[in-house]
Amino acid sequence: MSVDNPARTGLIISGTPMSSPLQDVRGLARHMVGHFVETVAPCGTLPGDAIHGDVTTITRVCLELAVGMLDGQDLPEKTKRLEEAAAQWAREGIPIDTIHHAIHEGFKIGSDLVITGAMPRHLQRSGPDGDAEFVIAVADVDNIMGGAKMVMELLDRMTSAVSRAYVRELRSVVSEHHTAVHTLTSALLGGHSTSTMVRECGIEIADSYHVLAVSIPEHPEEHSPTVEGAVVARRKLRRLQAELATKYAGKVLSLLSVDGGTILVPSNELPDEQLDELIERLSRAARVPIAATMVSATPQQIPDAADQAHELLDIVHRLRLTRGLFRFDELALEYQLTRPGPGRDHLGSLLDSLDAHPELLETLRTHISNNLNRQRTARILHVHTNTVDYRLKRIGQLTGFDPTQAAGLWYLRSALVARTYQAG
After folding, report:
1. What pLDDT does residue 394 have?
2. Cα(290)–Cα(246) distance, rounded to whole angstroms?
């Protein structure tokens, strides 16, 4: 339990504030965080943006709280900031023992600095055996003891604040899975929405929805050997969910995981022309290039529309199309070409002549996915643009369809779609 002291003055040792060794909070925070990364094993696996962002910031807040208390000040806003950080870490799945271990490691460093600084070296004198000894005033002894008690009080306050906020947030996260929004979204996607459910959820069902199938790629740090990939993935998803909650609160329904999911946007809340901006915002928030497909539907049509949207998203993946939103009418031809039958088999065979030239097939696929941008294709393939031109010419010679002409490109693109699905 934290100890609430009455108003008090700052602690002074030999005329110097005991907080002096901690005054450079920014420099000391950087030093402490570096120590955490090296010595607190779980900290070393946290994402770089967590280490250089939240962890460094909160370390500085803790130091400011320590300085304030040693100077006789109570800084409740610092404790509140610590609680907010603990709640965020709970959502992102950072283990609480990692947090507490880092706090205690920081206290070791800070305590050493304070105790060392409290020693009045200018009062040293040589003892009988020649060793240095200290002459400490009674008032200084009292202040040193007071400082030790205050350090324990500060540690108690920090660990209590972290534990309290962390557990409270965990309970909140668990309960979110049973909220009205989650229930209604699941019901709409499952085709089970009823007037009774609407009354229970208290959320009006729109006349029509934009049904978005969303793909969230992995963040580069998810595969870093020095970082905990699961934490990076959860932070990515949390940023995306926060963007939906703050910018589009009450306007969208969603069921998302770290790699994607489905978003339902009421047509009357967000018109079609604003959906591209929605995907751009989510990409910036998640810090990865999100791809999405969209099909419009009435509430009763949502289950089938969601299946269709995810089939379109599969086409986007197979064709390696760039980030952004793709509507059904943009992929209607590709969608139809994926239907099994003799037509798909014939189209797929048009590329058989490229089987012996995998570099040509890869060039064709990359060039189409880049919307025929020769420079971008060359950069991705690490070749000169002249090499891209030569390969496109060879593709035309081998297949009989010129990829630089509209008719030839139409056949080649169609054949690529068909072959992609023939391959599984």
Report:
1. 93
2. 19
What span, in angstroms and rounded, lies between the C-alpha atoms of 227 and 345? 45
CB 18 within 8 A of CB 114: yes
Which of 345, 355, 423, 348 is CA-nearest to residue 395? 355
The pLDDT, as a whole number, for residue 202 is 62
**Cβ burial 381-414 (10 Å sphere, 16+ → b, else e):** beeeeeebeebbeebbeebebbbeeeebbebbbb
Spatial contact of 67 and 23, defined as CB atoms under 8 Å apart? yes
Assess contact for 229 and 221: CB atoms under 8 A: yes
Q: Is the sign of the CA dihedral 184, 188, 192, 193 positive or negative?
A: positive
Residue 223: alpha-carbon gap to chain centroid: 14
CA–CA gap between residue 155 and residue 3 (Å, rounded): 11
Alpha helices in 287-338 (DSSP H): 302-318, 328-337
- Give CA separation, 378 vs 58, 93, 332, 357, 395, in Å: 45, 41, 29, 17, 16
| Alpha-helix residue ranges (DSSP H) falling in 260-301 | 275-286
Where in 258-402 does DSSP place strands (E)?
260-266, 291-297, 324-327
pLDDT for res 143: 66
Answer yes or no: are the C-beta atoms of 318 and 421 closer than 8 Å: yes
Task: Output the pLDDT for position 304.
Answer: 93
pLDDT of residue 409: 85
Do residues 173 and 91 make contact, with C-beta atoms less than 8 angstroms apart? yes
Decide: helix, strand or coil at residue 266: strand
> Which residues of the chain are modeled with pLDDT < 70?
1-11, 13-15, 37-54, 74-75, 92-93, 115-144, 146-147, 171-180, 193-202, 249-250, 422-424
Determine the pLDDT at residue 65. Answer: 76
**β-bridge partners, 306:** none
pTM: 0.57
Identify the structural domains of the chain with CATH numbers, from first to last: 12-176 (1.10.490), 208-337 (3.30.70.270), 342-422 (1.10.10.2840)
